[in-house]
## 1
Amino acid sequence: MKKKNHGKRVLLVSAKADVGFNIAPPLGLYQLSFFLNERGASCDIFDQELENAEEYIDKAKRGYYGAIGFSLSRISVTPESMRFSLDLIWRFRRAVEKSGFGAFFIAGGQEAALNYKQWLTLGIELIFLGFAEKPMLEFCRRLEKKNDWDGSSSERDSFLEGMHGITFINATGDITYNPSEQFREGEFKEMFYDQIMKIDVPYEKYWDIYRNKASKVNAGGSKFIVENVRLYTASHCPRRCGFCNSQNFLPYSSGQDKVPITILNADQVANLILRFHRRFGAQGVLFSDDDFPVGSREGLKRLWELCERIIHLKGNGDLPSDMQMACQARVADFLKRDHDGQRVPNRELLALMRRAGFGSTSLGVETFNDRVLKAPSINKLGVTVQDARNVLDAMIGEGIVPMINIILGVPEYQPDELSETLVITLEYILKDCDVSVLDYLMTLPGAPIYDTDLYKRHYQPWTHPDTGETVLFDEYFIPEHPMMQNLVNNQVRVVREILQRINEAQGWQNKLQNKRIVNISKLIAAAYLLERSDLVEQFTGVLNEVLGEAHAMPTLLDFGTGITRVT
């Protein structure tokens, strides 16, 4: 029996972040929605940070939507939020079933594209690969023309025939995988410059969340700016880190071994900064590319020229003189050869960046141990711990605050090697550096080490609401050393205990957690699980200094005792 496909609109559902301190508008989703609506498609956004699901589920019950799409990106969410996404998918599926109308359940993003085989068995019928703008537009135009739908897989096959950049289970039960098309000349600019120059994003609503809920403490070495925006200026990352899948999102989606990296030029990036300042009132910009300098001559030239453009815009009053920039980069980006052929920090570039307002730069250091740097899971070839220290010290000397990215649960770690990393991390925190800590090495589909059998894995279960079947999502790699196994298995629990005690002591139960406090708490927990009481005491002293800035009298908390140790 035919079902009338009443809805012609598409609903795009954002991922629900679960980090507690770093919420930001899902720019890619707003970009996709703008792209579709500007070309005549009908598209809504359900932004889970700002809205409640009930309104949209009610519309689904009334057959309002012809397709409901979910953004899935494991690298930016926790396993808890992945299970939340699954629960939400099935709430919407039940609503559509009750409506008597047909609707597609679709998904996109790195997790969906690189783990498509699993998601196509969990309630998602169609996955868009790579950047989804063009195939989604074609999908919407076909949906607009379709009036009846019997829900059969054969009819779905016919509906999707000839589309690029999609994957789905076909009528024979096999997976159809139609790679995305590569960028044509100028297409990246159209998507990430022309479109972004016109887009509207509810930044003020997100900034209000910070203003109303943020705990008032020192944000760290770098200046905290509420009115901050994120920009993306490169197609993908050039690096080959063992644990990361960002490098492979576009190559895998297009069926190619390698895809040329495309970047916006300095003038285009400067114009985006100016537009976001004038349109939204942005006082800070974070370039969220995995490696903003791109690690190439062209990328470094762009960075130099961009700094000159920003200095000029500030000099003539088009941008505030105190407007701050921040980016993500790699240690190797800031190394050059001196006259003797020795690798030294590029102080001229760092000085220019500081003049332009780059107050903070996030560096993928990952570990302060040379053996682990070259282990398969990290694979930071061509750089050493001394290189990292030289670049960090040069940044500090030029007035830039490094954000040091550290991974605790690297599977190759020995306890003394992680302790060594904690000692050096503490040294740089005391130099007023910021730190970002990953509790364990996530299993990211598409990463170079993901399909290897080098390491054991930890899994998180999810129970299917209709069948009762238990589905396992791999979450992180398990180290070989027993003490490191104990650390990764208990790190998150101990951190939660620490943060709960802080929130209770400070009266912050309904506040956003401060990023600096969260990350120092992670270091305390790691030191505790390594049985390094000396480091627990030292990191706790740093934490108490941060907490002391929130009140007239410091709150002295001792985390060396009272936390249940699980072995």
Note: The chain has two domains: 3-178, 187-548.
## 2
Amino acid sequence: MEIIKKSKKEAHPYIPELKALFRRGRITRREFLRTTTLLGMSAAAACAFVSPFSVGRAMASGSTPQRGGVWKCGMPLQLIDHPARLSWSEGANVVRQVAEYLTETGPDNITKPWLAEKWKASEDLKTWDFYIRKGVKFNNGIELTADDVIFTMNQWLNKDVGSSMLGLLSYWGGSQNIEKVNEYQVRLHLQTPNIGVPEHLFHYPGCILPHTFEGDFIKQPIGTGPFTLAEFADGERAVLQRRKDYWKMGADGKALPYLDKLIYVSMGKDASLAGLHAGQVDSMNIPRPSDYLAVKSSKNIKVRWVDSSYTYVLRMRVDLPPWNDNRVRTALKLSQNREKILQLAGYGLGTLAIDSHTSPAHPAYCEKPIPEYDPKRARELLTAYASEKGLKLPLKVNLATKNDEAEGEIAQALKEMAKPAGFDIRLDITDPGGYWDRWTEVDLGITGWTHRPLATMVLPLAYTKEAIGAWNETRWYDDEFTALLREAETLLDVEKRRKVMCKMEDIMQERGPIGISYWVRAIDITNAKFHNIKVHPTFWHTFTREMWREA
């Protein structure tokens, strides 16, 4: 792939520099693959450069996929309407079986072409060309073209739709910067340069829809994916059937998927675990660490896992008292005994975190000391605040969250840990629907945030002015932080980006709106008869098209 109006030897002029850095051991294999593929180098070429003897390795004997069968998964089912408004992974797991993305970030955190067969980036990262795969058809028989891609992009950028893509893609500068070059080529003229465009296109509300879409996916379930939506009952079940004319081929030379049917049964965690043991379901969505411990010795259940940047964010609304005072926010952060929270809520299956939404899984993460539990300092800050406001301690606050993952345990632990600091935390723990219906509105809450491959992908979603009204649940933004974020988005050199990230992490810890105790280990628990399952750090079900079942 050549750079626009530049060298025909490489996809981007920075790729020779990356090759040199890799040869000298300055960057890892994964970082080389991640960056070169983002800049338009084919995955095959990138892999051949770093591992020339592993290309084309034959499938291991005895692993030939079988066709047919049904997979059932216990997973809560909530309302689905416009895919661009998806704000939870469960709904996206249903939609993604039917509708697909221009790109796909795999379990290895590397982004590759999908509905776009390739892309090119200009040297300054402000112009990006995406070449749409020819011959791909929606399940209504109509071929995918640039018109569908541009229609979908305009939906993301339409404020009336209310998509989180709007905040994420604020650097695009608006719909006027999307150009149709021809029927299979779309050009983006970015307002500011950004290295993360291909990864942003795999944000889960970003699936490509036909230009005839009218706003309700359940009424109009049209997509290019491997399954069709046969049935959807809100809060009950979703049934997806194998599509016979899917564009991607399997290992046997026939169209994927291998399975005949997927069934999502709306269940809570306890019911899903019981159903898994009883054979009523084959898998459960986002297992808890306690579920892992309950099945790890079972011969009939296979456990897989991968580290991730999935986490539970203790978030405070800075536009409401008392959280509009940084002393109170800091006092609550200091009330986290992270090691104990990880043991109590995560059973030790995770990595301790700082109070910045940047993870060791992110390539430009800047390592910082884990903050100590310091209720004494927290009480000093809270006492100063209360004295100034004419209040008495303890300070009574309400903490809202849901009960199906580790949030409830984190909330209970924090309630006790924060007492010496002068907090009286009243818990408001509901079922998932009861929290997701108001997650951006509560003044203090714990929200599960899924994994993103880059910190510069998650931060625009939740901590910029443009994201208020979508996913900025804290209403916090900071001009210095935003300026640094925009700089980081332009930096190809991971070490230069890390230096900027160090400053951003300091800002979030010193005056930001969140506390994070630990990063989650992504676990999959599935009946051992199912194969080809690759755990995604987001917990997204991207493996279903190639998963197969023993007869």
Note: The chain has four domains: 15-50, 74-200, 227-299+533-549, 308-521.
## 3
Amino acid sequence: MNRYPLVLVLAALALFNCAFDWGFSPDDKCYEAKKIVIGFATLQDDIARAQAEGRVLGLCPNGAAGQLVKGMELERNGNLDGAIGSYQKALRSDPAFLEADGRLGLAYLKKGEIDKAAVELSKALEADDDPRYLEGLAKVFCAKNMYPLSLHYYQKAIALAPGSGTIRAGLAEVYSQMGLNDDAESAYNRAVALDPSNEAILLGIAKLHLRSRQPDKALKSLEQARTVAPQNREIHKLLAEAYDQSGKPEAAAREFQLAGTDRILNPSEYLRRGDLYLKTKEYDKAAIEYQAALREQPAWPEAMQKLGDVQMATGHDEEAITQYTEVLRLKGDSATLHYNLGVLYERQGLLDEAVVEYRQSLKFNPALNPANTDARSRIADIYAQRGSFQLAIAQYQELLKSSKDNPLVHFKLARVYLNSKNFKEAVAAYLEGLRLDPDNLQVHRELAALLKKQGLVEEAELQYREVLRLKKDDGEARNALLAIYVKKQKYDDIITLLKEGVEMTPADTNSYYKLGLIYEVKKDYPAAIEQLKKAIELKTDHAKALNALGRVYMKTGRLTEAKELLEAAKAADPGLVETTVLLNNVKEELSPTPRKHKKKKGSRAKKGKTAKKSGTAAKAPAPTKPNTK
């Protein structure tokens, strides 16, 4: 169908609309234009879209909506930088125009500026989910290899646009990059069913089949794609590769010619190109080149090993094991291959097989085997994991002969000693590791706990202090130190520790309460009163703090205030026994009950003694040891 160029249509419509005043103020017109822009996503017909864009230009040519339409036109004409500039102008005119954020994000994505794209697309999704922008974010996260997030956004986009084949094709590509070929194929098949003439979808599923060495399936998709776009040279190139995999060299040569590419006759050129892709971590492309080299020269150990390296890097462990095993059969032992096989078996949980391969790697001269240290370390780790502690100790000790300055080896050895109940050796290994790495917080914690358990309180105290040096707010270390200080009655150290706790957590009632108790034990009653009052200010029904302050007031002769506080403590917690005793004592002090005595025959001295006993006031008990819990 012949159509006028879109620019002319837009211009004519803009002139038509500008010729009349429809009764809107400029703001009203731009508001109306924004409403039209928001409805663009629902327009499928090119003519309807052109008419809508013309109306926007007529209503608000220089406002946010007009700038957005101008940007869309520039983008369609291939001027991506110009489009980005127009979208930015739209946002300067109206920063809350989320449609402009979305368009800008998609433009950044086309340009490859994925971080900027992520920011703008996230803004566009603030008001409401839009499948276009959800798909854009999914592509961003796929480009960053953040596949779970990419899947999440693709699935949300599909829920909103279940009939979109391109979104499902994007989902398929993520599955493919994750190595989930069955899921990828399923997603591609659904995409093809929804959009059978989409060239990009057909090429995507063909590439998937080529990567999984299913040339017959690839050929089927490529023949369909060639019907849609017979001039596309990439289709011919992929057809050539499919025929190559099928063992049809003449058909492959014909397709290479149609693709405008001479078939490479020297297999080493495939290998060289694969190495370049491997260096830049373009693993899919590297695999294609190595596979091409192997088609030209089957059973080529170097190409097979490099293909195995790619498969190992991309998580295709079974295929990598197959390649490495075949290379060992063809060219004999190799330290690197045995080590790689050990890693692959360990990944799969086949620990016995892994140990065998690591031990094979150790047979080679360490000077010629860079993986020697790693292999021994992995053997030791496996033994430790399986509870074979003596075997693990022997490997770590052997490892220390060449890695005595590696603190991690000392720490691992210490943990194995600890698990095997060799506490003295564990302490020595921990200390040596800390000499090399004095700021390892976790190891200080582990050593402190071990020393405390062994009754080495002084040494444990030093380690807990190191923990607090590295992490001042470590609550577990503070509580452990506090317990040590209380047991040793080091009240000045307790006060210092509790003051630091109060400074770090000024809203913690118990910090003030504990500090008040220590001051009471030291008979610094003014300081005790100050801290206990702060605890009560933060929590007016803190029964223990009310009880403690009442007790301090009794000791300082403030009986009326003591009575009020003890009554409040009893109301807050009727189960506090000390509160009841103190309250009875203070009541007796304030209102002593006279006692009647029967006259008995006897000495006056005995009578005087009884009278003296009757008039004696009860005193508040002093805590013998502070309870900081």
Note: The chain has 35 helices and no strands.
## 4
Amino acid sequence: MKTTVYNLFKCCLIMGLAACSDETLNPADTLYIRGNIITVDNDKPLVEALATKDGLILAVGATDELLILKGPLTKVIDLRGQTVVPGFIDAHSHFAGVGTQAMVANLLPAPDGPVNTIAELQAEIRHHIETSPIVKKYNVAIGFNYDDSQLAEKRHPDRHDLDAVSTEIPIVVMHQSGHLGAYNSKALELMGISAATPDPSGGVIERQTDGKTPSGVMQENAHFMIFFKLIPDFTRPDLMELYKAGEYAYLSNGFTTVQEGKTDLNTLRLLPELAASMGFDVDIISYPDVAGIADDAVLAELPFSSGYVNGFRIGGIKLTFDGSPQGKTAWFTEPYLKVPEGQPSKYSGYPAFSDENALKWMSLAFDNHWQLLVHANGDAAIDQLIRLVEQSGGQLEGKDHRTVMIHGQFTRQDQVKRLQDLGVFPALYPMHTFYWGDWHRDSVAGPERAQHISPTGWMIDEDMMFSIHSDAPVTFPNSMRLLDSAVNRTTRSGRVLGLEHRISPQNALKALTIWAAYQHFEESIKGSLVAGKQADLVILDQDPLTVEPLELKNIKVMATINNDKTVFTRID
């Protein structure tokens, strides 16, 4: 009986690949055999072999069944029991920013970096100025990812702290949220920021005790309006080095598809050129910052596409409705537990747009059938998103728009069903439970609200798909930390934050693969290991579905394969 079934399988498979004959006419390019292959496909969730052809998955099944596809040139990979999963998809991050992160001062706190005091921040910037060829070449010092919630002083560095490092060259240090920055006096002078400069709409220039002189700390649109002007006009060789360094960070963590989640105009013009000239080993989906570009003629010429050209495509546009909860600029309906210095006791953050202005950009996206990503962290910003999508119902009727809520940190339970009914897809950020969970509980929102950040449990209860993401370079694109935080929800201090929102390793893996593919309209070509999809694979040293949950963060990526091309191999 077994032989009969095997021969039937062999005949059917070969007939599907080429004409039936005594020989395999269409052998596989690669055979992965004797493995623990998690397909993330409900029909055949676990197999031991996988065959590829022309960058696509040809077949999955048992080793002895697929060996019939071995030809004289077929490459055979004996997995020796290692675990294989689909290529990871970072459902929201900033590809260009990860590249820049590799070239600037690392101001991350423990466990990812050395900066836990302002003195240590100053020391890192000094070292960067002394040793970085980028500083010497472009005469600007940039640091990424200080975190006031983790600094011993529990405050932002100001211009006086940075002036103590240098008053000769401009210095800017970016907050880990990406929504604030601190500048020295030289940088403020070059950018024309003075006591007479008014706060821009949707932003705040923090002031000294006189209420006029800029302190050096810039929030939201005040930060965005000058930060990118200080980024050097890198040469093409420097950019290639920068982006390749960023790409390696993704590949070494098993990501085969990544977002460039708020693309400025210069990057938008450059990435397709670099993709064509030097190529990337990850697939990059760009979502231009529509309000930042704000040019109808430019937007009309953008080549939005569902298909990749040289591994790059523009998938839609991005809007930002509020700021950062850890930076205390996210927009809440209730006040912050501990309001920032100088703010009234009822301070609850602020919006980036009025409803009228936000609706203008949303209508442009809906009218042009562009997928829309909306950054919304606080529950008031999520209310605004829900309200405006509801108002746009006529434009969206009968359309699979898959508008995406980015982050959704403080989504209320009553908002979950409304998001589902409106077809808004949640791209969540459970890594906050580790990095800022204690801060959210003790300073940002209090114990009750903090329990429900990234409320994945409520979404599982509603049978909703959602994705999880790194938001790199806010955090490193650490895929195992992503799985760990979604499954365990432990904070830096080791407490569990939101027990009811812990999800199974199976659902966490889906959120990093097939559900993330669905978010991008790519579920038919990516996200699971089934015949016909891209051969995007990750080889792991342990099985994330069976390992002790608290060990998830320690799993190692052994190899990353994109379109059947090995693009990363671990060398210990």
Note: Residues 173 and 473 are 13 Å apart (CA to CA).
